[in-house]
Amino acid sequence: MASDKFRLVSPAINHEGKFPRKYTEEGQGAVKNISPPLEWYNVPDGTKALALVVQDIDAPDPSDPIVPWTMWVVANIPPTLKGVPEGFSGKEEEVGGDYAGIKEGYNDYKVPGWRGPKLPSHGHRFEFKLYALDDDQLHLGNKVTKDKLLDAIQGHVLGEAVLMAVF
User: Fold this and answer.
1) What is the spatial distance between Cα 32 and Cα 40, in angstroms, rounded to a whole number?
2) What is the spatial distance between Cα 155 and Cα 152, in angstroms, rounded to a whole number?
3) Do 117 and 24 touch, CB atoms closer than 8 A?
């Protein structure tokens, strides 16, 4: 049944998949570096941790026509959580409880946490990918990056939920 499928949604992204300006660094209405709210459903049985990677999959790079640009890397999300609130990035300790152990990695701006994009053009697709993992003891070191995370989770992924949005 489709309703039992592991899925990722955001109350901030409308049914057309339009990503709100508020979470970018684009002009009026943008609130710099406020992460969007996310919710997930039907986490696979046996999940011990969740991890999230958010990328602009249409980012241009001078040396390569299209290279995904990492905007957010999050590891050690307890499967007991049903989502993260708006503006969560950088506030794990403040929010406390089950959120306190979450570890945010470095994005392609070389800083930890969410960084809203400033785009040279519109129509970019943002991919939010949530991984359900059978291991809650990922050894990622102090500086978590997308590459380190993806290497560490190999062989431990029970499921993936993807949310696409366009800005």
Assistant:
1) 24
2) 8
3) yes
CATH number where 61 lies: 3.90.280.10
pLDDT for 128 = 97
Output the CA–CA distances (angstroms, integers) from residue 141 to 69, 104, 105, 122, 138, in the order listed: 22, 12, 10, 35, 9
Phi, psi at residue 108, to the nearest 5°? -75, 0
Spatial CA neighbour of 156 closest among 4, 46, 36, 12:
46
- 30 near 21, Cβ under 8 Å? yes
Residue type at position 155: G
Residue 106: DSSP 8-state: B
Question: Residue 3: its pLDDT value, please?
Answer: 62
What residue spans of the chain are helical by DSSP H?
92-95, 146-153
Give the chain's radius of gyration (CA, Å).
15
How far apart are the C-alpha atoms of 144 and 146, rounded to whole Å?
7
Q: Domain tally for the chain? A: 1
The pLDDT tens digits for 124-143 are 899 999 999 999 888 888 89
Q: List the domain range (segments joined by +) for residue 105.
A: 2-166
